[in-house]
Every structure is written in structure tokens, then in C-alpha cells.
Write a structure and sequence with these properties.
Layout lengths: L1 E2 L10 H7 L3 E2 L20 H8 L14 H14 L3 E5 L2 H10 L7 E5 L4 H13 L4 E4 L4 H7 L4 E7 L11 H10 L3 E5 L4 H4 L9 E5 L13 E5 L1 H15 L5 H11 L2 H20 L4 E5 L9 H7 L6 E6 L3 H10 L4 E2 L9 E3 L11 H6 L6 E5 L5 H12 L3
Parallel strand pairs: 4-5, 4-6, 6-7, 7-8, 12-13
Antiparallel strand pairs: 1-2, 3-9, 8-9, 10-11, 11-14, 13-14
Helix pairs in contact: 1-3, 3-10, 4-5, 13-15
């Protein structure tokens, strides 16, 4: 197996590294990365197996915790994110759960923004306390609430920014400082911004997690997740947890995700351009009462968006005039945009959070994070933007 030799005398840009980073060609010299569908690995001698297991030989042992195809995906994400190390997982939620459980023990405490994807909130609010790790939920935009929530036992801060689904943006740099002053790590779910538009590690975050199922795959084909951070965090906490508990990413999924990364910058650019145009159309429509898009100057945290993101992203949140019935009328009238709970797909997707992604939250909890029965989340895909605007305009006539 030979490694691709990339220039060492100059930094390569993201679009180039996402095509070439982590290449490992076999003796056949294949252009497309080889797919290593194997669970185990053979050793020449008993002594070689012993050396592999005791760490003297750094080669592969078992695909539950390392595999050449998975390594290629991890290396590309490391290069894109600017991390020291990473471990891939079977799904985004496997990555989120591992990022927290690997470093926490009974008696520790977590502070989290309350505006989270429903499953993330379950992990923080319901799962961790079962194992003796209480959590405090705060308004993520209120820095004083982060400070006030800190206890001597606080070990981790957790947030997503922009938030799902209301696209609220939090000051990662300021929150990271509060976390570090308290001796805690900041973990950021960066799915909505993508690594193309926001680099949480450069803003002071310690750990970044992704559902690679979303923009990274970009085709709605497969599940995957990844956790990125320092070499110390990965080796002291994450590596052993992943190795022993087994939330493994399959080699096939890793190969698919690595190929998805090759087109990620192009897809984000096209989807973001369309999202901005659709947001502008919706903002002036009489049947839309509220419109939030990170790329518009009327975003509540527009100055912060400019400071920590390089673009507005691919998602638009809006509220139609009326309630659940009118939101459903709009969704059911769409012909091009699909109804689903995914995002980041080449196909545009409409989601009604109150009855899908956030349905497990109580009405009061949904209201507290800005989710009403008429809130809709649009993930903009790669269709021609004029066809999408025509579809949305037609559907609004049904409201």
C-alpha cells in the first residue's frame, strides 16, 4: 500500500485536500479509493499479532475500531476541520453520544444549550442523568446563563450553532472561554454550518461532531458520524471508548462518505446560493410571518454570523400564517420539494419539526426554543432555484 504524496512546501486549499487527502493505493494503483470490506486482518507470524495488539506495530487489528477505508475518511475530515485526530462513528447520534460519554463519569456535570435536535437533547437531558451526570440547559445566546450554570463538577459544554431548526447562532468563541475558565471542554455540533462555512476549533471549541449523513454524504445514501478534536482528547478518552463499545462506521459507508467529501465545496456553494434566493422570496411573502436565514442582514445575530461563519448555509426556517393545519397545507401542496426529516441532501426537503424531529419535546419546551406548530425547516438542494421558488410559491397559495 502506498500513500499519496502531496506538496509539503505550501498549504493546500480545502477543495484540493478533500479530493486527495488520506489516499492509500494498493499495489494495483487504482484511481478511486479501494474499498476494504474486511472485519479482520491476517498476520505473518504469532509474534506479529502480539506486536500489533500490544501497540508496537501500529497496523490494523479489527474493523470494529480501525479500517483503511475508515482511515481515509477520517484523514480527509481532519484536514478539512484542522483537527489533530478523529474517530468516525456509525451515525451522527453515535458521534454525539460518544463525544460525551467517553469523557464523563458519575458526579460530573454538563451545561448545554436548550435549543438542540431532539435526539441530542435526549442524550443531554435524559440519558446522561441516568448514569449520574446531571445537566443544566440554558439559553445559548445568553452568556450570563452559561456562566451561572457552571458548577465545580462541570466537565463539558455542549451546543449546536446554527441551531436546529430555528437557525439561532451562538458565540462559540465567548462560550469556549467560559468553558475553559471553568475547566470544561466545549463540544460543538457543527452540522448545519458544515466544515466549509464554520471552523469551531479555530473559534476555541475543543471537540466538533458531525452527522456525516447530512451534507457530507449529500445524497441521502448512508449513515455516518465523526468526532474531531485534539490528539489528547482522542487518545485519552475517545479511542478506547470507541474501541470497546463498538459504535463503528462500516467500511462501505466510510468509502461513500469519503467520495461525498470530494464534491462538498461545490454542493455547499450551489445550495447556499439557492437558499439565499429562496429566503429573499419568502421574506417578502404575505403568508410568511417569520423568516430566518443566516445569510440575511435581518438575522437576529447577523453580526455574529459574519464573524464566525463564511456564508449563510443551506437551510431556511420560516413560519407560515396560521398553525399546524396551514403548515401541513403548504407541505402537502409541494411537488418538487420532498417531505422528510433529513437535511443536506441533493434533493430539497421540507420538515415540520413540531411533529417530527422535535415531537418528543413538550409544547412548552418547543415554544421555549422558538418552535411553533407553523414552523417549517427547508433544506435547500441542488435543483434549479427557479423551479424551487415556483414550487414554494405554488404551495403558499394553499395556505
Amino acid at each position: 500500500m502506498s500513500r499519496e504524496r502531496l506538496p509539503q512546501d505550501r498549504p493546500l486549499r480545502d477543495a484540493t485536500r478533500l479530493i486527495h487527502e488520506g489516499e492509500a493505493r494498493s499495489g494495483f494503483g487504482e484511481m478511486s479509493e479501494a474499498l476494504y470490506l474486511t472485519s479482520g486482518y491476517a498476520y505473518d507470524t504469532m509474534e506479529a499479532a502480539e506486536a500489533r495488539f500490544d501497540g508496537r506495530d501500529p497496523g490494523y487489528i479489527y474493523s470494529r475500531f480501525s479500517n483503511p477505508s475508515v482511515t481515509t475518511f477520517e484523514k480527509r475530515m481532519i484536514a478539512l476541520e484542522g483537527a489533530e485526530a478523529a474517530r468516525a462513528a456509525a451515525s451522527g447520534m453515535a458521534a454525539v453520544t460518544a463525544s460525551l460519554l467517553c469523557m464523563l463519569k458519575a458526579g460530573d456535570h454538563v451545561v448545554s444549550a436548550k435549543a438542540l435536535f431532539g435526539s441530542c437533547r435526549y442524550v443531554v437531558e435524559d440519558l446522561l442523568p441516568r448514569f449520574g451526570v446531571p445537566s443544566t440547559l440554558v439559553d445559548g445566546a445568553d452568556l450570563d446563563q452559561w456562566r451561572a450554570a457552571v458548577r465545580p463538577q462541570t466537565r463539558a459544554f455542549f451546543l449546536e450553532s446554527p441551531t436546529n431548526p430555528t437557525l439561532e447562532v451562538y458565540d462559540i468563541e465567548a462560550i469556549a472561554k467560559i468553558a475553559h475558565d471553568a475547566g470544561a471542554l466545549l463540544i460543538v455540533d457543527n452540522v448545519f454550518a458544515t466544515p466549509i462555512l464554520q471552523k469551531p476549533l479555530k473559534l476555541g471549541a475543543d471537540v466538533v461532531v458531525y452527522s456525516a449523513t447530512k451534507h457530507i454524504d449529500g445524497q441521502g445514501r448512508t449513515l455516518g458520524g465523526i468526532v474531531l478534536g485534539s490528539e489528547k482528547y482522542v487518545m485519552d478518552h475517545l479511542h478506547t471508548f470507541m474501541r470497546q463499545t463498538g459504535p463503528s462506521l462500516s467500511p462501505f459507508n466510510a468509502w461513500t462518505l469519503a467520495k461525498g467529501l470530494e464534491t462538498l465545496p461545490l454542493r455547499i456553494e450551489r445550495m447556499q446560493d439557492s437558499a439565499g434566493k429562496i429566503a429573499d422570496f419568502l421574506a417578502g411573502h404575505p403568508k410568511v410571518t417569520t423568516l430566518t436565514y443566516c445569510g440575511r442582514p435581518d438575522h437576529p445575530q447577523a453580526d455574529l454570523v459574519k464573524r464566525q461563519m463564511t456564508g449563510g448555509g443551506t437551510l431556511v426556517a420560516f413560519v407560515v400564517d396560521g398553525g399546524k393545519e396551514e403548515a401541513f397545507r403548504f407541505g402537502n401542496a409541494l411537488q418538487v420539494v420532498k417531505i422528510s426529516n433529513n437535511l443536506g441532501d441533493a434533493k430539497s426537503i421540507l420538515t415540520h419539526p413540531a411533529t417530527t424531529t422535535h415531537q418528543r419535546l413538550s409544547p412548552d419546551d418547543r415554544a421555549a426554543v422558538g418552535i411553533t406548530d407553523a414552523t417549517l425547516r427547508l433544506s435547500v438542494g441542488l435543483e434549479h432555484v427557479d423551479d424551487l421558488i415556483d414550487d414554494v410559491e405554488r404551495a403558499l397559495k394553499a395556505v
